[in-house]
Design goal:
Distance between the termini: 22 Å
Number of domains: 2
Strand order of the largest sheet: 9-8-10-11-12-16-17
Structural class: alpha/beta
CATH architecture of the largest domain: 3-Layer(aba) Sandwich
Strand content: 15-25%
CATH superfamily of the largest domain: Response regulator
Number of helices: 10
Radius of gyration: 21 Å
CATH class of the largest domain: Alpha Beta
Largest sheet: 7 strands, mixed
Number of strands: 17
Order of helices and strands: HEEEHEHEHEEHEHEEHEEHHHEEEEE
CATH topology of the largest domain: Rossmann fold
Amino acid sequence: MGASRGGDESTSSSSQARRISRRGALKTGLAGAAAGAGLLTVGGIPAARAAGSDRPIRIGFQVHRTGIGAVYGRWYERTANAAAAYINELGGIAGRPVELVAEDDGTDPRRGAEVVEKLATREQVDFVYGTLFSHVVIGSAPRAGELKIPYFVVSEGYHVASGKLNRYVFQPGITDVRSQITAVAGWMMGNLGKKVAMIFPDYAFGYDHRDFLSAAVEAGGGTVTARIAIPPTETAYSKYFPRIPADTEVLYHVMVGPGVLTFVREMGEHFGSRRPAVFGFVDSLEGVPMTSPGLEFLDGTYLWEAMPRQAGQYDTPHERFYRERVGVGPDGASIRDPKDVSTYSHMFGCWETLFAIKEAVEQSGYRDPTPADRKALIETLEGFHGFNEGRSHPQGPKVFDGRLHQCFGQQFVSKVNAGKLEVVHRTAIEDSRYEPAADYTKMAL
């Protein structure tokens, strides 16, 4: 188990968290009064004790500072810095300070591979962490495998859990698209309709939506009326909407990049009051104020969220603590600038992934970037069963499947009401599980 038991690190109102906590107690015997702060204890002694080295744990942060992922990158970086600062307040990782070494990959897959190499060889970091966009992950992961450096992504794509990458790649802090769709598709069809048209970005992340939603709709007795792929750099969308059949009951959309406001506005201009029911992934609106002109079209529609943007919609002390530490106000914007809206449904993955790294380092005895220590860390993390909800994991409890290198968690369906996102449904972790198609533990290191 990758989390401590006891204190406010467990959430008593969640049966999922209770089950994870009990398994964690059986697996590792972790307990202690420091649990509420996120510190692990073994036999009553804090595990964040000096590990025989004053050298910082250096974590390479592959960040989208430029390119189509820049709005995510900005908030990923703020969240990562906030998490590192909090971890250092707690005593660091195994008693050693955390040092983030950031490098812009331009949201470009070729540049991403170069960044992994630079961080591993020139900066000599212990691990690389933080990548979001699927095409960058897919372009970067092979180089991480060649360099034999643990590579922790915060991406959502199914590429990790699919088994198509390598044993050095993990996604322990955010759920993948397949599990998200598996969790919410039944609610969508049961409440909105079974004739579904899909609009998605024309690259790997979008193809995951296309493939897994198509399978879920068909398994639920529904029909996909259209599959429309749009280049992520597109700036005009009106030409795509006439391709949606008139008998469509649900319009499913997920778009990313700088054109999302234009996308929603032109969708509204095309459909007007004759629109079908609309179910979207909040990816289309991350970093965008819900009160922006044109978004009034979305009033009464539904969105998937991994972590509710609006304060009070998942009201736990852990979520409130996290929101304060990353500097986000009640409506999801920066407390310093109400026009600077966060990517709240994704960036928590940076916070939680850093804590997953902390837990894996401390339980594996990792000290230095040697093959033996990295092997121990990888095998230890593969043995984790999940993470307890708490300050370390404020989005909720997680189940971790070491075969897939992927976590599973709860999801939220929110309704747009007068420019605000109000949660109307929360899924259970079990709703998101699917049959594993891979086993990384059988791959050589």
